[in-house]
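Propose amino acids for all 137 sites.
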């Protein structure tokens, strides 16, 4: 979906007069037709504005996660709501470090658990054997 406001150089809160002037200035006939169809009809503009807010939020979320579109999607209508990756506000690196540390601790536990488990079973068997010999003997 195209970001009609961005492509027309408008603020989403622009009034009817501003929208009409921006549409008249537009030289792209398909964009002009889309803008007239959507932004000049109040009910359609309300629906578009609700979608615009949602897609803008998704674009901000993708940027915060460091996600971008592949090169063949860039500069097209699919890329209108994309923002550059937000590495400053992202906690990606911190979360990856915590995940790596947790994975290392998990792997270390699994490596050590095998020998300790076997040694524990052997010790338990010996203690039960000694207790059984004393009880029977």
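Proposal:
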């Amino acid at each position: 979906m195209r970001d009609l406001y961005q492509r027309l150089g408008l603020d989403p809160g622009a009034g009817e007069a501003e929208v009409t002037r921006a549409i008249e200035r537009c030289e792209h006939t398909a964009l002009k037709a889309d803008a007239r169809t959507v932004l000049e009809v109040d009910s359609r503009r309300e629906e578009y504005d609700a979608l615009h807010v949602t897609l803008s939020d998704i674009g901000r979320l993708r940027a915060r996660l460091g996600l971008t579109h592949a090169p063949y999607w860039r500069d097209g209508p699919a890329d209108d709501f994309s923002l550059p990756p937000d590495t400053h506000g992202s906690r990606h690196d911190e979360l990856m470090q915590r995940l790596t540390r947790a994975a290392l601790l998990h792997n270390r536990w699994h490596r050590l658990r095998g020998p300790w488990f076997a040694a524990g079973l052997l010790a338990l068997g010996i203690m039960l054997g000694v207790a059984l010999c004393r009880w029977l003997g």
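The radius of gyration is 31 Å. Residues 92-137 form one domain.
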